[in-house]
């Protein structure tokens, strides 16, 4: 598996939607990283040392370097939009995806849970320990 990048949202707070911020998640056999709107590193590490799980509601909860991050496939109404730099960073990786989630996920959640299932599978393919 080669490198892949996409925009996901980091739920910094369970209750405050404005704190659900877009990050560019990049995954390659040798490393994983998440970068914020201004390019700042949110986390980075070896994907084989990442632990986590996908919740029933489609949140990918990962632990990188001992810190927990809740990642979701779309932001809320109060969430900031991805920056132009983030959009440009993932453009080379944009592909049509068939997974997208089921009908209920599409209708109520814009396919966000399906996108996070794809990320779970990508993490597992490079050796992350996901339950």
Output the helix-strand order: EEEEEEEHHHE
| Overall morphology | globular
**Poorly predicted runs:** 104-109
Largest sheet: number of strands, sense, barrel closure: 8 strands, mixed
Count of helical segments?
A: 3
Helix content: 10-25%
From the alpha carbons, calculate the radius of gyration and give it in angstroms. Answer: 14 Å
- Kindly estimate the percentage of residues that lie in beta strands according to DSSP: 25-35%
Strand order of the largest sheet: 4-3-2-1-7-6-5-8
Q: State the assembly state of the protein chains.
A: single chain
The N- and C-terminal alpha carbons lie at a distance of: 20 Å
Itemize the secondary structure elements and their pairings.
Elements: E1 4-11, E2 20-28, E3 31-35, E4 41-45, E5 51-54, E6 60-64, E7 67-72, H1 84-90, H2 103-109, H3 112-125, E8 129-130
Parallel strand pairs: 5-8
Antiparallel strand pairs: 1-2, 1-7, 2-3, 3-4, 5-6, 6-7
What does it look like?
The structure is a single chain. The chain is of the alpha+beta class and 131 residues long. Helix content is 21%, strand content 34%. The protein contains 3 helices and 8 strands, in the order E-E-E-E-E-E-E-H-H-H-E. The protein has helices at residues 84-90, 103-109, 112-125; strands spanning 4-11, 20-28, 31-35, 41-45, 51-54, 60-64, 67-72, 129-130. The chain has an 8-stranded mixed sheet, with helices on both faces. Strand 6 (60-64) and strand 7 (67-72) form a beta hairpin. It is globular. The protein starts with a strand and ends with a strand. The model is unreliable at 104-109 (pLDDT under 50).
């Amino acid at each position: 598996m080669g490198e892949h990048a996409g925009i996901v949202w980091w739920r910094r707070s369970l209750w405050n939607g404005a704190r659900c911020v877009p990050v560019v998640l990049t995954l390659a056999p040798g490393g994983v990283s998440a970068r914020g709107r201004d390019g700042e590193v949110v986390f980075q590490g070896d994907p084989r040392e990442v632990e986590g799980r996908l919740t029933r509601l489609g949140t990918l909860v990962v632990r990188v370097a001992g810190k927990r991050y809740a990642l979701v496939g779309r932001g809320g109404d109060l969430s900031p939009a991805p920056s132009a730099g983030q959009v440009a960073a993932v453009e080379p990786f944009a592909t049509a995806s068939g997974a997208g989630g089921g009908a209920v996920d599409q209708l109520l959640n814009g396919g966000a849970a399906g996108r996070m299932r794809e990320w779970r599978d990508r993490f597992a393919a490079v050796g992350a320990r996901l339950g």
